Amino acid sequence: MKLYISIDMEGITGLVDATFVDSSRYNYTRGQHIMTAEANHVIETAFEEGFSEVIVNDSHSKMNNLIIENLHPDSKLISGDVKPFSMMQGLDGSYAGAVFLGYHAMAARKGVLSHTMIFGVRNMYINDVSVGELGFNAYVAGHYGVPVLMVAGDDETAIEAESLLPGVTTAIVKERISRTSALCLSPEKSGRLLRQKMAEAIAGRDRVKPLVPPERPQLTIEFANYGQAEWAHLMPGTTIEQGSPVVSFQAKDILEAYQAMLVMTELAMRTSFC
């Protein structure tokens, strides 16, 4: 059996503000070590519970955060960008399950370092379903028939996961106080929890089903600023609501919707404040 792990950084225990997740800031190296340790707890448990192959996709920022020399030696790492499918690069139907590790809540919701892809996104929808990174990525997994077995992050991330993915196992490594503060488990205790929850998720993997995406999904993104919407609307095939920072794209499938989202958000980041 093969396991796919998409690992972000904002949902790792102890990482509560930008100083831990921005490579130019003073706590970033600490964040890398804690992130790599959390990955190893999940990887090792997967091997112990019968998985023969574990692929880890580094999914934060420039996607080169994990310390490969400290990573479990029997795992394989997808590192760096640009990746055509970003946080879900390398996934296909050969995997028995996926794990979302170090994930965070969507933008405009409570949660430690909550956001959706970029800070210019307020809301994102697939048809009428509100999604963040977690939900969108789960739809991509569902396209391949792959269930999301476990989601780890803060308590708000767990609520979001459980509302979208009935039967999913959640591991809460910190509890939100504000967007940049939390009650965190120590790395040692977080590691024990992740091992326990990963073993439970594998044992109960038959109870969680893939999140099947709609056949012809409409992607809708509400940006924070009309200028961001103007940039996103430069992508062919999009429509913009006049007088509103909302841009839509009718996709042929969820994979096209995902890549459209990547292009639209990259364009939107070109907006300046003056």
UniProtKB/TrEMBL annotation:
It comes from the Bacteria. It is an enzyme of class 3 (hydrolase). Keywords: Aminopeptidase, Hydrolase, Protease. Pfam families: Peptidase_M55. Its EC number is 3.4.11.-. One of its GO terms (molecular function) is aminopeptidase activity. SUPFAM superfamilies: Dipeptide transport protein. This is D-amino peptidase. It comes from Paenibacillus favisporus.
